[in-house]
């Protein structure tokens, strides 16, 4: 992954030491609540609060209910105006009533999708980690082996059922591909769940027993009928909506008539080849592109040759 491409991946930025050893501290929640220097990050579902200047909004430990699920996020590695290096951060996963007690204005709670590009590297790392783990905790309250309630241990990074079975967070690997043809046009598809004018790269989850390269070839063929070769890895970005790691690739269409591209008709309703001129002329008008927080946007701009001045 080149430095230039990495700079286009807002959700991959990070200035945080996850400090895994500290998660094993006995009675960790009490230790963290007793430390006035700790910053507490409220999380409502997959939504967060921001200060007027755009930074994440933190609260005091007293605002966090004792029964809230909390997650030790780690320590800052660099000084910042609101927290020196070494400051510890904790996410507090709140239900509706606890969240309303902190901030009753529903519009103040915002999805990370909407402002990920505006955060500092430290705050971006905190937000992605917190949202991803909040999503995991929301669906892992019970052991899949015994059906028993699973308690939160290890600073929020493990759940354990009464029989001692431990549950660890998982990340779903998904490939996303910038496919180009012999004329260096890019292949974009429109998903059935989107507006008709919205297009993005083809993507899909890696199946068990499958290499990333095979997943690239399979997903592109299944969704568009295009055969590709020479998949080349570009970089990765977490996508905690709810628990994906997007692995970016580019690949070349195998020689042949590119007009044979056809959507699968179920997930993808339309696929088209676009030139750079077409993208420049239509973007933001009759061509809605993926948002700036996505790796899809970064790969499209990598192919295009620079930033596209549209949302």
How many beta-strand segments?
A: 15
Query: How would you state the average pLDDT, rounded?
Result: 95
Point out poorly predicted stretches: none
Spatial strand order of the main sheet:
1-4-5-2
Structural class: alpha+beta
How can the largest sheet be summarized? 4 strands, mixed
Give the termini distance in whole angstroms: 24 Å
Strand content: 25-35%
Work out the helicity level: 10-25%
Radius of gyration: 22 Å
Order of helices and strands: HEHEEEEHEHHEEEEEEHEEEHH
* Rough outline: globular
- Number of continuous helical runs: 8
How many domains make up the 3D coordinates? Answer: 2
EC number: 3.6.1.22
Protein name: NAD(+) diphosphatase
InterPro entries: NAD-cap_RNA_hydrolase_NudC, NADH_PPase-like_N, NudC-like_C, Nudix_hydrolase, NUDIX_hydrolase-like_dom_sf, NUDIX_hydrolase_CS, NUDIX_hydrolase_dom
Keywords: Hydrolase, Magnesium, Metal-binding, NAD
Give keywords.
311 residues, four-stranded mixed beta sheet, Nucleoside Triphosphate Pyrophosphohydrolase, 27% strand, single chain, alpha+beta, 2 domains
Q: What does it look like?
A:
The chain has helices at 3-6, 28-33, 96-102, 112-115, 121-138, 212-224, 276-282, 295-304, and strands at residues 16-17, 39-44, 47-48, 69-76, 88-94, 110-111, 151-153, 158-160, 166-167, 172-180, 186-191, 202-205, 228-239, 244-253, 268-274. It is globular and about 65 Å long. It is built from 8 helices and 15 strands. The protein has a 4-stranded mixed sheet with strand order 1-4-5-2. Strands 12-10-14-13 form a 4-stranded mixed sheet, with helices on both faces. The mean pLDDT is 95. It folds into 2 domains: 3-138, no CATH class; 172-304, Nucleoside Triphosphate Pyrophosphohydrolase. The protein is an alpha+beta fold. Strand 13 and strand 14 form a beta hairpin.
């Amino acid at each position: 992954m080149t430095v230039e491409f990495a700079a286009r991946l807002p959700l991959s930025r990070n200035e945080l030491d996850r400090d895994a050893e500290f998660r094993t501290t006995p009675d960790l929640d009490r230790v963290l609540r007793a430390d006035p220097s700790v910053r507490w990050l409220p999380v409502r579902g997959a939504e967060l609060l921001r200060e007027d200047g755009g930074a994440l909004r933190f609260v005091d430990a007293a605002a966090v209910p004792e029964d809230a699920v909390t997650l030790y996020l780690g320590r800052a590695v660099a000084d910042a105006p609101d927290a020196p290096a070494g400051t510890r951060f904790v996410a507090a996963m709140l239900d509706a009533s606890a969240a309303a007690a902190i901030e009753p204005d529903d519009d103040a709670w915002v999805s990370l999708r909407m402002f990920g590009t505006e955060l500092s590297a430290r705050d971006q790392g905190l937000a992605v980690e917190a949202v991803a783990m909040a999503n995991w905790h929301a669906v892992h309250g019970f052991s899949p082996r015994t059906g028993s309630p699973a308690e939160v241990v290890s600073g929020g990074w493990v759940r354990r059922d009464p029989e001692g079975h431990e549950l660890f967070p998982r990340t779903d690997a998904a490939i996303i591909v910038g496919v180009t043809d012999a004329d260096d046009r890019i292949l974009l598809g429109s998903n059935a769940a989107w507006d008709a004018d919205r297009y993005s790269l083809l993507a899909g989850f890696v199946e068990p027993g499958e290499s990333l390269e095979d997943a690239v070839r399979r997903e592109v063929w299944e969704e568009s009928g295009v055969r590709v070769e020479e998949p080349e890895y570009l970089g990765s970005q977490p996508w905690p909506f709810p628990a994906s790691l997007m692995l970016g690739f580019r690949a070349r269409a195998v020689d042949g008539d590119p007009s044979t591209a056809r959507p699968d008709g179920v997930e993808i309703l339309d696929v088209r080849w676009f030139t750079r001129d077409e993208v420049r002329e239509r973007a933001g008008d009759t061509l809605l592109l993926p948002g700036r927080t996505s790796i899809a946007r970064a790969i499209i701009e990598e192919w295009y040759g620079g930033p596209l001045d549209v949302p």
